Amino acid sequence: MKLWQGAMISLARNEALTRFMQERAPTSGLAARFVAGPEVADFVVTARRLREHGFSTSAFFLGEYVADPEKIAANVQGIRAVVAAIDGGEVDLHVSVDPSQIGYALNDGLGEANTFSIAEALADRPAAGRKTLMLDMEDESYVPRTLALHSALGNRGLPVAITIQAYLRRSAADIEHLAASGATVRLVKGAFVGSPQTAFAARPDIDASYRALAGRMLSEDARAAGMRPVFGTHDEAIIAELRKLARRNGWRPGEYEFEMLFGVRPVLQQSLVDGGEAVRLYLPFGRDWWPYAIRRVGESPHNAWLVAKALVSRN
Ligand SMILES: Cc1cc2nc3c(=O)[nH]c(=O)nc-3n(C[C@H](O)[C@H](O)[C@H](O)COP(=O)(O)OP(=O)(O)OC[C@H]3O[C@@H](n4cnc5c(N)ncnc54)[C@H](O)[C@@H]3O)c2cc1C
Q: What is the best residue among 133, 140, 165, 188 to mutate for testing ligand 1's pocket, by most ligand atoms within 8 Å of CB?
């Protein structure tokens, strides 16, 4: 598995291949499986279709770790386009943002200013439903800054939520604090590797940490404090356990939710909706689709055929 994932990460980082793939029709094959399309209009169309099937969405404008001021500005513009597309009706939209895509990879002041401008624009959009800026969590060097950014936005009354990674040892203390303050938290296992001092590396340890943190998030105390748990996972066993725990502790679907990546385990996604759960899909859009899509393929060797098809197809 590690070998396969490593190979896919190399493909994701190959600049010539990225350019070559992204110049082809971005709405076919591999891209279409994991990404709404190149434009914000593609996001809107796909999000509406998903809504008809019972899903809410998290919009993500593709483009991570950029230190070039022009690219940062383009990312901010892409994110603001989705905020501007909120049309005043009933929405339930999370706008997911990587701090490294909007300035933090260049300097923190710029990153903070850009995040505030996006959060303020989001807060100002007329909408009958929920609209939240969800801060994604990146490598360890970003964790303290992202937590500080989350508090600063929250202290200004802006609609903000944060992602916490179960693979980090510090997350138990972070969840404690966030649960007591009634935050909206998306719990994920973590897509990065840390040092032994700061992180769990073995899969059973990461899963055990996920279960413990999720248990705290679904506690009666957390519910009383107004916490809103979002479980970002495709792990069927963990999902089944959390559904039972939620019922036991008096949570109703919608007070907590599950979030999965668009295109990953669609049958499981639909079965949860059909079973009455609130499910959100993380739906990326934008032209930089190759590194994102190929990393998803790397997470499951079952997807090998998608790469083969993408590399040989002419469209
Ligand atoms: C909504 C959302 C937001 C996320 N945001 C962040 C973030 O901000 N920071 C961060 O570090 N990580 C983030 N992640 C990634 C996360 O940390 C994990 O790396 C990823 O979700 C895989 O973990 P899992 O919980 O699905 O469990 P796993 O144990 O990895 O997988 C559970 C099951 O799902 C299947 N599966 C998982 N991925 C795929 C795939 N691509 N294709 C087919 N099957 C698959 C596995 O084969 C397995 O059967 C996010 C994930 C989600 C769903």
A: 188
Measuring CA to CA, how many Å separate 141 from each of 40, 72, 210, 225, 271? 30, 19, 21, 29, 37
pLDDT tens per residue, range 195-221: 999 999 999 999 999 999 999 999 999
C-alpha dihedral over 245, 246, 250, 255, to 10 degrees? Answer: 170
Cα(228) to centroid of ligand 1, in Å? Answer: 20
pLDDT tens for 126-138 read 888 899 999 999 9
Residues forming beta bridges with residue 279, ordered by sequence position: 55, 258
How high is the mean pLDDT of the chain? 92
pLDDT score recorded for residue 314: 52
CA of 157 to the centre of ligand 1 (A): 30
What pTM does this model have?
A: 0.94
Q: What is the pLDDT of residue 177?
A: 97
The answer to whether residue 288 scores a pLDDT higher than 70 is: yes
Looking at domain 36-288, which of 3.40.50.1580, 3.40.309.10, 3.20.20.220, 3.40.50.2300 is its CATH number? 3.20.20.220
pLDDT of residue 224: 96
The conformation of residue 289, written as its DSSP 8-state character, comes to -
Is ligand 1 within 6 A of the CB of residue 192?
A: yes
Q: Smallest Cα–Cα separation from 222: which of 276, 183, 187?
A: 183
| Complete DSSP assignment for 161-196 | EEEEETTBTTHHHHHHHHHHTT-EEEEE--SS---T
The domain segmentation of the chain, as residue ranges, is 1-32+298-315, 36-288
Spatial separation of the C-alpha atoms in residues 170 and 198, rounded to whole Å? 7
User: For residue 297, which atom of ligand 1 is closest to its CA?
Assistant: 41
Q: Is the CB of 211 under 6 A from ligand 1?
A: no
From ligand 1's centre to the CA of 307, what distance in Å?
Answer: 19
CB of 184 shorter than 6 A to ligand 1: no
Q: Whose CA is nearest to atom 52 of ligand 1?
A: 232
